Amino acid sequence: MNITIITGASSGIGREFAVQLDGLFSNMDEIWLVARRKERLEELRCRLKTRCRIIDMDITDPVYMRQFSEILKIARPRICMLVNCAGFGLMGAVDMLSLEEQLSMIDLNCRALTDMTYRCLPYMRKNGRIIQLASSAAFLPQENFAVYAATKSYVLSFSRALHEELKGRGVCVTSVCPGPVDTEFFQIAEKYGKTLAVKKLTMVSPQRVVRKAIRDSGKKEPLSVCSLPIQAFQVLSKVLPNRMLFGMMRLFH
Is 148 among the residues known to form the active site? Predict the structure, then answer.
């Protein structure tokens, strides 16, 4: 059985991946939709043509993850694509956000993503694809977004290394690094603070991000960066000293 697994499938970019991957591959038997909000997954399943399996679970919970491993052992699927989209961010200074909130970001964005990837690796088929949702925040430390940016730097570094490790198996790992995307993300992220207005000027649709990510993954690209402003930001983060970029960002505050 050939399957695609999508975490964070109940909303935003994860949901959009399910929509765009639906019917894209003729040999895809099932899409496994993973998220906590079962009712949203049910709504999504009704929209899709491909047969779907709903797995409503918290991927940060070790008990659920052990159960997920059992599901894999029983089903013995061939994973054609793993799309890790589950994650969240909170804006605010480190000493303003609660410790619990910041550790939760690390737990979901880093540990759970690594856990899910590790458990799926034995079932990845040759020429399979892994898509990891990072962020343009991974390119540079972010004042008042410190922990989130650090978690996405982890995702980017982990994914690029994994891309090299899995070349011999024919498995491609693509890190998706968008700037601001027009999703529910900001409803949570702006709980304590607002993102810079200049950042919102670069906001793109989830449809555009996902379309490019799928295309780049198909070309076995290790990195997918959507929109010219964010591509320019990536280049600047490589060629300019961090202190200079920090100074430029402070001017926008």
Answer: yes
